[in-house]
Amino acid sequence: MILLTGGAGYIGSHVAVALLDAGLDVVVLDNLSNSSPASLRRVQSICGRPVAFRQVDIRDEEAVYDALKTYGVTAVIHLAGLKAVGESNQQPLNYYDNNVLGSMRLLSAMQRAAVKTIVFSSSATVYGAPSYLPLNEEHALAPTNPYGRTKLFIEEMLRDLHAADGDWRIGVLRYFNPVGAHESGYIGENPLGIPNNLLPFIAQVAVGRREKLTVWGCDYPTPDGTGVRDFVHVCDLAAGHLRILKHLKAPGLLTVNLGTGEGSSVLQVIQTFEAVSGRAVPYEMGERRNGDVAVCYADPILAKNVMGWKSTRSLMQMCADHWRWQSRNPTGYSA
Ligand code: UD1
Questions:
Q1: 65 catalytic, yes or no?
Q2: Residue 263, SS3?
Q3: What is the CATH number for 41?
């Protein structure tokens, strides 16, 4: 039995499908602060198998411990956490509480229950501004905001735990920019309020929920002047979790990037989205967004060499799948 924290969220629901499709049993813990239980009902209908669910906050160590014991959990995939950069600047303590303290409580419960296999959802944001490209796992770690620092501190905690007790099996996945949705169109990203990230914003413009996109900066030293990112399909990302679980059959600590290794500009993404959706995505050029870098993309070779993972889906497919989800669920799970 695999325990998935944050399993009702965007990435969690896709990881749940990947695990169930691989024949594994899944129990989800989620406090539903930024997710909907409807996502899990849809996961069950995609896979035709049940998902156990408990509404639990990972800071509640006893509740986590009880779930680990009750379900006979053998490994944890830890995705629960707050993830908005801007909000983390306004509410740093809330971020340290949910993300860092939450992870500490989760790890304590795991230690007590003698469950010593964990996959942690980290982020390329731990690298901060790239001093070279592509970003490999050796790059210095210097996040530039509280959200990124919570990810770094949790990584450090895991490294300390592994140094203290060599029985632990720890996988750290540094995601680049997850986008897209399951090909069924049943599950996808469902941001509350105004989306911070590019793809959800574009999709809401295309479906008519918002008038136009603002492109944050058109004077970057990139081919078309707009920012360049490594967008990776959420189903490829989900497959990476399965891969690393298989790799963690022996004790150890593995940290890998999950990205495609290719950068796409904001304008390229808009054009691709327009082409696959057949909808116009009106946009205007705006100032640079505070804290953004010009270019960021992964060196994904370690994930390929060590655990045989590479991304398989194109930007076109990412946009097509994102659009299928958005057009069938214009208001997300609330419909
Ligand atoms: C952001 C976070 C990062 C987090 C990641 C995934 C920041 C600074 N970084 O990455 O920590 O791990 O999301 O959740 O927020 N863009 C627009 N208009 C928009 C939105 C975005 O032009 O309305 C541009 C951005 O300037 C950027 C690109 O699109 O060049 C991608 O932005 P976004 O989707 O927010 O991802 P990141 O900023 O790379």
A1: no
A2: coil
A3: 3.40.50.720
